[in-house]
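Dock 6-O-phosphono-beta-D-glucopyranose; give full complex structure.
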Amino acid sequence: MKYQFPDNFWWGSASSALQTEGASQLGGKSQTTWDLWYAEQPWRFHQGIGPDDTSTFYRHWRDDIALLKQLNHNSFRTSLSWSRLIPEGTGAVNLEAVTFYNQVIDELLAQGITPFITLFHFDMPRVMQEKGGWENREVVQAFSDYAQVCFELFGDRVKHWFTFNEPIVPVEGGYLYDFHYPNVVDFKRAATVAYHTVLAHASAVRGWRAGQYEGEIGIVLNLTPSYPRSQHPADLTAAHHADLLFNRSFLDPVLRGEYPADLVALLEKYAQLPLCQPEDKALIAAGKIDLLGINYYQPRRVKCRGSAVNPDAPFMPEWLFDHYEMPGRKMNPYRGWEIYEPGIYDILTNLRVNYGNPRCFISENGMGVENEQRFIENGQIKDDYRIDFVAEHLKWLHKGISEGCNCLGYHMWTFIDNWSWCNGYKNRYGFVQLDLTTQKRTIKKSGEWFAATAAHNGFDKE
Ligand code: BG6
């Protein structure tokens, strides 16, 4: 093989509870903020499709795991639903949920697929949001207790834990840019949410270590390398600020056990620092991880601001930079995201050079495409564009590994076409096509390509 990967490389894909399980109001599950928001503002959701019956994994888990096996996955990440497991957010555990997750974990293991389990993937229980969500330290404690319940129930079989998936996204969506509930625009509240999420993460890690469970614990971050328009000092500063806010606000605490001093100074300058308690520092230091999941979709290109800010407008990250559209950039027009394959290599190199080369893997990478039915030939979606997308990213990943980066695997977003938050089923990401009417699953051409790549632990594509 021209691109051969190290032995025991993790080949797989990722999904999340809320995006796949469905049965949102069944099996003893309580509501999340998504159920609440959908009830209040259904027009926010593409074609009015909400979170109530997403992709039916709750019913079809056994068949779906058989499909994972057919795709030659040796590992698979999904999340547990806090509101399914502990419907009141704290206290009594829902036994039906325990049975469901036990069955899923046991079946994955029986099929030789290592379960990677995330504890929180954007799905705040409604009861917890009613207490203020991540703005309230009580919720931090409740999350830590929920994590402990999960470790106790499933830690004998789950050896790869992730506290959060993309914790910056609920901060951006819910408190800055109006694409998640509770649709607040307030930087200081956003900073508080981010800070408390780091505390919740650290508290779960501390609990896991105290329990002396076998395996490893980490977090999944969406890292978006910040590229300056030019090497002009003003553009470089803009890129540095974007990096501090969107990447290092989580990366540094989880890998170095502390925040970057210049991020703290920056927030202080604009009077946006969250309230800290003296004991937080030690807790954050205890939250250092064993394994980093990296979600990589797109770079962030920035330039220095071209105009003065409106001093009456709410403080926003964009006070510190402007977005930059690089001429000739390659786009995924359906999602509006730039495709820049070398970004994956730059992330890994940054981790190797500046963060002590941590154990890490690509936990998500993917391409959402609209109306894929137009690519059907002989009953199968011939998604060659997705094969190219994966192969080009894998080539850069391979280069990173050949230079010593400690990258242990590659997971695709996602396994079966699933429900994408406000985008519903508009853009399809799966290796497996989902027919929404019949729920029939059909493997796409990319699924077959990936299965062969996993089987050979590499590929030859030019
Ligand atoms: C990641 C998330 O950000 O990207 C997933 O972890 C999400 O939950 C995926 O579905 C694709 O983004 P979107 O918004 O197109 O669904």
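Observed: The chain has a mean pLDDT of 98.
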